[in-house]
Design brief:
This protein is α+β, with helices and mostly antiparallel strands. The protein has one domain: Phosphoenolpyruvate Carboxykinase, domain 3 (Alpha-Beta Complex). It is built from 3 helices and 9 strands, in the order βαβαββββαβββ. A 4-stranded mixed beta sheet has the order 2-8-7-4. Strands 1-3-9 form a 3-stranded antiparallel beta sheet. The protein has a two-stranded antiparallel sheet with strand order 5-6. It is globular. It comes from Zooxanthella nutricula.
Length: about 140
């Protein structure tokens, strides 16, 4: 008789490692709390409650604008984004709105999407943040 097929393992975060230097802006109070402990997923956003990062400090100007967002304190982070799900500009993938639960069920570690003002990365666990520190940053002034 033929051997039984191997059992299929449940989808869990991958063993893929891909470290990126990213940026997060928030209030000074929240920033100091993050640096003294860890990031915590927010309660809402394009891709639901998660931790959102921009690819450069200037991009945080147009990204940190939600009801729970703040500005004034820039955190430079190294994030292991792992296996990245590339979503559309509204954080949809194959017709479904992406969020942390769906991302993990599909075997991904993070989401990348561009809502029209540059790519941002979303992770759902502070464990993916490898390093973080405050940087002084002043947004570019436009005439």
């Amino acid at each position: 008789p033929a051997p039984a097929p191997a059992p299929v393992a449940p989808l869990e975060p991958t063993n893929v490692h891909k470290n990126l230097t990213l940026f997060h802006t928030t209030s000074r109070t929240a920033g100091l709390a993050i640096l003294s402990s860890a990031f915590r997923p927010g309660s809402r956003g394009w891709c639901g409650g998660a931790i959102y990062f921009a690819t450069d400090p200037e991009a945080t100007r147009t990204k940190a604008i939600g009801l729970d967002s703040h500005q004034g304190f820039m955190i430079n982070v190294t994030v292991d984004v792992g296996k990245v799900l590339e979503a559309d500009k509204s954080c949809f993938y194959k017709g479904k709105q992406m969020n942390c639960e769906r991302m993990v069920e599909m075997g991904y570690d993070s989401i990348a999407f561009d809502p029209g003002d540059g790519v941002e990365y979303i992770v759902c666990s502070a464990d993916r943040v490898l390093e973080m520190h405050h940087i002084n940053y002043t947004y570019t002034e436009y005439d």
